Each structure stands twice: as C-alpha cells, then as structure tokens.
Amino acid sequence: MGKVLGGLILAGLLLAACGGPPPTPQTIEVEVTRVVEGTPVIETVIITATPEPVQEVGGPLQSVGEGEGEVAIVSWAGYIENGSTDPNFDWVTEFEKNTGCKVTNKTAATSDEMVALMNEGGFDLVTASGDASNRLIAGGTVQEVNIDLIPSYSTVDERLQNAPWHTVDGKHYGVPYQSGSNVLMYNTDVFGDKPPTSWDVVFEEMDLPDGKSNKGRVQAYDGPIYVADAALYLKAHKPELGIRDPYALNRDQFNAAIELLRQQRALIGRYWHDAFIQMDDFTNEGVAASSSWPFQANLLALGGAPIAYVVPEEGATGWADTTMMHIDAPHPNCSYKWLEWSLNPKLQGDLAAWFQTIPAVLEACKGNALLGDTGCEANGLNSFDKILWWRTPTTDCGDGTKECVPYHEWVTNYIAVIGGR
C-alpha cells in the first residue's frame, strides 16, 4: 500500500512542477504494488493529467483568481470616473459591484510624474502615454501582460494591438485604453469670428482679435515632451531645418526648437500641467489660448464658458494611452479584472464622450448615447494616422543614424527654459 501512495505522491509532484503557458496533459508511469491472493504483484500504471498553470518567475499571470478587494490606479485626470464629477460618467461603481475590487485612483499631471509614482511602487496599474510606456518597460517597472487572460483584447483596434509603445519583442506590456490629439484651446470672446488656425498664437508675439497682445495671456504644457510641439511648428514654418519627425531631432533641429521655446517664454503667463488649474485660469485669469486636451475644453464648454478648440493647420501631437501593470502589483487578480473591464464598449464609449478621445475598441463608436454615432469622427478617428503620437526620444533617428538628442536632454533643457535660462 505504501508503494501505491508513494507512486501517486511522486506523480502529483511531477505534474505540479510542469509549468508554462498553456498547460498540456502530462503522462508518467508509476509502479503500483497490489496483493493478489496473498501474493504481492508489481504493476506499471500510466497516469495522464493536466497540471495547474504555474506562473514563471518574472512571467505574466497564468490564471485569474479571486480578487484581493482593491486595485490602485495611477491615471490622467478624467480617466477613472466614478460619477462624482458628473453622474452620467461612471465606469467604476459597476466594476466594484461586480468584482468586489474597490478602485483607488491617483491622478498624475505629466508622464514624468507617472513614471516617478510607478517607480515608488504601491500601485497596480497606470494609464501611460507613449512618452512614458517604453521607459517603464525598459526600466523593468511594468510586467508583461498575458492577453490570453483578457478575452476582449481581440476587440481592440488592430492598429493598437501590437503598437510599439507597449509591445516589445512580441511581448505585450499593457492594454490600449484611449487615444487623442493635443489641441489649441481658446477663448471665443477674445477671438470672436476669427478663430485661430495656427499654433503661432502661442509661439509668436502678436495682437489677438480683441486688439490686445497675447503676451501673458497664453500658456504652454510644462512636460518636456512639449519640445515636440515646438519642433512640429518649426517643421511647417522653417522647412530648411529638415525636420521629419518631431521626436527624432538632430542637434541643430533640437537647438532651434529650444530657441523657439525660449522666445515663447516671454509670452507665457503660466506653464500648465494640472487640468483643473488650467480650466480655472481660462475662467478667472484671462488666459486667451493654450495647448490643451479636449477634456478641459469639453468641461468648460459644458459649464457655459466661452471656450472652443481647434487642431491647427500645422497638425498636432497626441497620446495613445496604455493601461500597464506594475511588476510588483499588490493586487494582480483585481488588476486583470480591471484590464478586461476597461475594454467593454460602454466604458470605452462613455470615456470617449467625456474626454473627447478615440476609443481603443471601435465597437464603442456606435450605439453609445453619450458619444453619439458621429462622436468618434468628431474626436479625430479619421485623422488617426496623421497624429504624431508621443514617444520617448532616443539617440536613434530612425534612419540608421544615432545622432538624435535623447530624452534626458529634453528634460534638462526644457527645465532651463521654464526657469528663464
């Protein structure tokens, strides 16, 4: 009898040790001792069983279990709404009810702040833009995501499913969430029947249609990625610089962008990063124009403020955001439940209506009462391939040369510009 028990224990250990996705049936032979008419008889028994999935060290989760009761998310303002801002926009309450996972949310104002928060740890997920996502991957801060555990991944816009800002060497490090364009927000009382058509209103000193100078009445984003906006403006207005890609700038191109930003410094009333402070500035501090997000313009207009926005003739930079999971996420099961939930068409459509973005799941573009059937087109769906998506600048110029200015120099130089140096 002991031989039978020993054989079965051995079989269990062998099968449990077989890890790796997906688990496949394993077959082993076990010697079993039986007593037949008083005589011990040794027989060989073949056992076939399928092992439980085992997470490889450093690998993604292999199965989703019971939730831990919480999921902690770092996000852009307006991305994780529970109805407290506007009861029509709530994609948190139902998730919490269905899963038992309470959502806690920390908003970040810039990609650099998101990277810093994730490096500190204690969070599960982050809605990272392309100028942060590759840094998080390269730094080992986020983990590979097992998309087999996210059934709705197949519904994601095919242009995003393997995007380079979250997919490296065939491994997925996140789930696409939303994308959108940076815009030029302006006060319609200032511009009247002459709305701005160019970014020049924030880069060049001039009198605005109300007869007053723009000096002190415009703003600029205070993230270093804004250097790309200056480069995009120069691409159109100084073609002799030869700028092809605003995220891949050689030394001369980069220096020209920094010089333009120094020129702009004399015009800036405030460098913005907090969406709600910017909204207050437009409402109460006489700001006339600024780079912004549709989120602020939408909220201000809904509140009756004389605000509109435009994508100027030079084009625009933009962000394609990905929900990524910390390498040491304290609540991995609730995290995977949120990743799946984040792709449901109702959430995607409601968020696109709220933030005026393009959903990652295009099914959301139809049948959503808040977004409307033309909402995706109005938010820039048909211009998707024209938006210059944020990404982290490196020395790689994309043409075989390694002479472009890397991101750390963008950071130090833009800090100097903001500081008046």
Characterize the structure shown.
This protein is α/β, with parallel strands linked by helices and 421 residues long. It is 32% helix and 20% strand. It has helices spanning 2-16, 93-99, 111-120, 130-138, 158-161, 188-191, 200-203, 227-237, 251-265, 275-284, 294-302, 332-341, 345-355, 375-378, 407-418; strands at residues 26-36, 39-49, 70-75, 102-107, 125-128, 167-168, 171-172, 175-181, 183-187, 218-221, 268-272, 289-292, 307-310, 317-325, 358-359, 388-389. Residues 1-22 have low confidence and may be disordered.
What are the main properties of this structure?
421 residues, alpha/beta, 7-stranded mixed sheet, 5-stranded mixed sheet, 15 helices, 16 strands, 32% helix, 20% strand, disordered N terminus
Short description:
The protein has 421 residues and is α/β, with parallel strands linked by helices. The chain is built from 15 helices and 16 strands.
How does the SSE layout of this entry go?
Elements: H1 2-16, E1 26-36, E2 39-49, E3 70-75, H2 93-99, E4 102-107, H3 111-120, E5 125-128, H4 130-138, H5 158-161, E6 167-168, E7 171-172, E8 175-181, E9 183-187, H6 188-191, H7 200-203, E10 218-221, H8 227-237, H9 251-265, E11 268-272, H10 275-284, E12 289-292, H11 294-302, E13 307-310, E14 317-325, H12 332-341, H13 345-355, E15 358-359, H14 375-378, E16 388-389, H15 407-418
Helix pairs in contact: 3-4, 8-9, 9-15, 10-11
